[in-house]
Amino acid sequence: MQDLARFCRELAEQAPAGPLLLALSGGLDSSLLLTLLIRAGLGPRLAVVHVDHQLQAASSRWSQFCQSQAEQHGVPFTLQQVDVDLAEGLEAGARDARYGVLLPLAAAQGATLITAHHRSDQAETLLLRLLRGAGVRGLSAMRSRSRRNEVSIWRPLLAVDRPTLARWAEDQGVTWLDDPSNQDDRLRRNFLRLHIMPLLRQHWPGADATLARAADHMSEAAGLLEEIASEDACDQNVMGRTLPLGQLHRLSAARQRNLVRWWLQHNGATAPSQAVLAELLEVQHAAGDSQARVEWGDWAVRLYRGALYLGERETFTPWSDCLEWRADTPPPLLPQWRWSREPGEGAVSVLRPPGDLTLRGIRGSCRIRRHGMHQQVKELWREAGVPPWQRKQWPLLYRDQVLVSVPQVGLADGEAADAAEQWFLLPSL
Length: 429
Prior knowledge:
By secondary structure, this protein is of the alpha+beta class. Helix content is 39%, strand content 21%.
């Protein structure tokens, strides 16, 4: 058992600093990992969480088993029950539900999330993503260290194959439960595991290691693409959710695609299909005053003045309500914007004159009297470079049916600036 002793020493040496949170399913892999983490001396900063997907009648027995394992090792235990959305399939729904509770829990504890993925899981993941037509980033599969939603994830078993784990578990006297759903070959991963991988191993005995090595190569290539995209983003003056198009044509088509993918990924957007990506790149050839749009899933991109603007679809929803803002009261809530007394990223200046006011969305040809003339609000906003969708979201401030203040423009004639309160609208999405 020299290899196991060495592995435990490596666990102790490689463990991230701070609290550790192990996702414990009750199966062989995670049950063994719990034992190994304790043996490595990491018990004092280790906690355990079990996610009950409530998909089987015996799920409560699994929860009880995991709790007993945690108690046996003297580590804190948390049970999280989830409802699985089956709209995108059982496997994807269960995964989304699971990480939907694991990541916030780890974040709340300031902990590194530990999962028991091993080398055979890595090989299966690579093949599944290859069959989906994934790109280099997708084919890099899992990494031993990664981050998701600002949470660190550690997969210490990723270089160990399943037979070795089974031998270690038997030698250590580890107990576990076998999930009967793992034999359901209607699920794609199970079909791959039960029928395809055995055939591959029969003809290529080192298939798991070879596929895992290929994933490592893809991971290195993905890192290089990340570096290139980051440099291109700097050269193209990409800032946040805005991507200028003026110099994009100077890049090769491949680097354009790489930059747009990077931009979307770094802003949390769902990865676009190949067709959507081509549509996004085609937008750069639209007319300069075009308001072209591209939408996919919950995300959307708008073109304005030679730049792409990214946001959730809700970000671009117009607002046309009418709200009261009485004197000496907080401002009323708005859908896409929040009020603040301090400026921030994307802040919009709003001067609030004294008295009871009414907030209204822009309708038709609204005018405000400034510098002795009645000026159209739409024109003032256009001159100020306000994107069209924001013009339909910002509130106009009225007193007694008279427009007295316009965001990012200022006060109407006759309103004293020194009597007005300074407020800011900040994007809430």
